Amino acid sequence: RAQSINPIDEMLRIGRYVTEQLRAVSVNVIYDLNKYYASSWRAMEQEMRAHIFKIISDNIERGISEGLYRADMDAGIIARLFVGKSMLMVDEDFFGDREYLWADLHQEFVRYHMYGIVSANGRHLLEKYLAAEQL
Fold it and tell me: Which of 14, 73, 96, 116 could form a disulfide with 92 if both were Cys (CB 3.0 to 4.6 A apart)?
């Protein structure tokens, strides 16, 4: 985050980092943690949700103030939606069939999120970054 040029760059850097981490994690490990250590998993999940919420809401507020994100949205609501949607990737009832790799799900999710929040100026910059980096 500290190396980012702007909020769009920051989100794409975060997205790349998380995608790389997801490629390194076994799906079975996450499902086993959830199944056999449910209380520990819930505690870790709560911490993770709070951390993600803070990062995303800060990013959205920064993007709005810099004119790269739409000014007509509530950063808190969008950040909560982001957290909720990100948790769907490890929800066995939702993506339990393992039809998709987590890294692929996350990559699509980041694109989906970014296109939903960027302003007209931000969209041009986002497309420039995506073309260059293929996220």
Answer: 96
Residue 78 is inside which H or E element, if any?
helix 75-88
Distance CA 90, CA 47 (A): 15
> Which tokens go with 60?
């959205």
Distance CA 24, CA 11 (A): 20
Secondary structure letter of residue 130 according to DSSP: H
The token pair at 76 is: 């808190």
* CA-based nearest residue to 20, from 32, 30, 28, 12: 12
Kindly write down the DSSP assignment for every residue of 21-52, as one continuous string: HHHHS-HHHHHHHHHHSHHHHHHHHHHHHHHH
On the question of pLDDT at 9 being above 70, the answer is yes
26-75 pLDDT, tens digit per residue, is 767 777 887 898 898 888 889 989 999 999 999 999 999 999 999 999 99
